[in-house]
Design brief:
By secondary structure, this protein is α/β, with parallel strands linked by helices. Helix content is about 35%, strand content about 20%. The longest helix has 16 residues. It binds adenosine-5'-diphosphate (ADP).
Length: about 375
């Protein structure tokens, strides 16, 4: 029996926070919910000072979800609403100027979305491939630690090696260097991510991976705009962020949250990508605007962010990314691939890459 997010949330609504006498869903404590083939993972976000005494609440949440028919495993972790954790005394970890996490990486961009399922990972994979197609050295860091999808989308399996026993070699395919939690933990193994680990995962994956020289590292962020995402956005020196949104109003509201999150931490928003913008019928080629198309463009204008482009809802995009052959590499001649390449070009220009990269003109007379 397929387990749905709704069923999990309904179960979590029966779990009452002892201090606040309301359920954990209503209190907005449930973050990063992932349901995959009966395996459920989520974090309960709590105020830091309450963390140590809320282990029973975490266990109660796990038990409630375990009772949902079809659930095979549950991993619930407590995350602190405000870093640092008790085990990590000292100032909140931040991207300090001058602190070099990945010395050979020229710029890091985040691909983010206000909520899951809008095509953030599909966009991140295709944009990374499009940046590479435009001649750049590109890496992908799958920071979606709750539901890593880059191994599948980029058609990579196996485990990274560590020749020196300290750093991990990134995996490779289609000319990209790739690292994902999905390589380190088997897909059906529930991940045990304690709060501090969730918050430092991105830094660790930057520090402990032998990225070498890269023009750009594309980070596929976990969906949402909670504290885990905010901390990630703060922890690394991001050159900018790309927000992926679907046209539905609700998604746009979420997109706005994403935008505000990056602005709050002074990360430039490079623009908004409207995904599943309109429907292209695979049979007749007819275009239908099934979700009020154009909403993202208007919203982007209103919010003063650039509208980077629109990608249709097309079965080709779904099939190719789910089969590990994203459209930019499997159908480079297609209109979709062209859209991604144009967006990649614009992103590269915006982070100042084009100017930096331009070779000196040597005129021989
Ligand atoms: P997210 O990272 O936001 O959770 P994904 O990139 O995993 O979303 O996409 C969710 C599903 O939607 C995947 O099966 C993906 O192949 C599909 N998908 C994403 N973008 C499109 C699109 N433009 N057209 C058709 N299917 C898409």
């Amino acid at each position: 029996m397929a387990v749905t997010e709704e069923a999990v949330l309904a179960a979590l609504k029966t779990v009452i926070d002892p201090d606040k006498q309301r359920d954990v869903v209503t209190l907005g404590m449930v973050q990063g919910l992932t349901v995959r083939d009966g395996h459920v993972g989520f974090a309960l976000e709590v105020e830091r000072e309450r963390g140590p005494k809320l282990e029973p609440l975490r266990q109660a949440a796990e038990r409630a979800v375990e009772a949902v028919p079809g659930v095979l495993s549950v991993t619930a972790v407590l995350t602190a609403q405000a870093a640092p954790s008790r085990q990590q005394p000292g100032p909140r970890p931040q991207a300090q100027p001058g602190k070099i996490l990945a010395p050979g990486v020229k710029s890091i961009i985040a691909v983010a979305s206000g909520k899951g399922g809008v095509g953030k990972s599909t966009t991140a994979a295709n944009l990374a491939l499009a940046l590479a197609a435009n001649g750049l050295a590109v890496g992908v860091l799958d920071a979606d630690i709750y539901g890593p999808s880059m191994p599948r989308m980029l058609g990579i399996s196996g485990r990274p090696s560590s020749p020196d026993g300290r750093t991990l070699e990134p995996m490779r395919n289609y000319g990209l260097k790739v690292m994902s939690m999905g390589f380190l933990v088997a897909e059906d193994t529930p991940m045990i991510w304690r709060g501090p680990m969730v918050q430092s995962a991105l830094q660790q994956m930057l520090k402990d991976v032998a990225w070498g020289e890269l023009d750009v590292l594309v980070v596929d962020m976990p969906p949402g705009t909670g504290d885990a995402q905010l901390t990630m956005a703060q922890q690394v020196p991001l050159a900018g962020a790309v927000i992926v949104s679907t046209p539905q109003d609700i998604a746009l509201l979420d997109a706005r949250k994403g935008l505000n999150m990056f602005r709050k931490v002074d990360v430039p928003v490079l623009g908004i990508v409207e995904n599943m913008s309109y429907f292209l019928c695979p049979h007749c080629g007819k275009r239908s605007d099934i979700f009020a198309h154009g909403g993202a463009r208007k919203e982007a204008e209103r919010l003063g962010a650039e509208f980077l482009g629109e990608v249709p809802l097309d079965i080709v995009i779904r099939e190719t990314s789910d089969e590990g052959r994203p459209v930019v590499v499997s159908r480079p001649e297609s209109a979709h691939a062209e859209v991604y390449r144009r967006m990649a070009q614009r992103i590269w220009e915006k982070i100042g890459g084009a100017a930096r990269k331009a070779p000196p003109r040597i005129v021989v007379q």
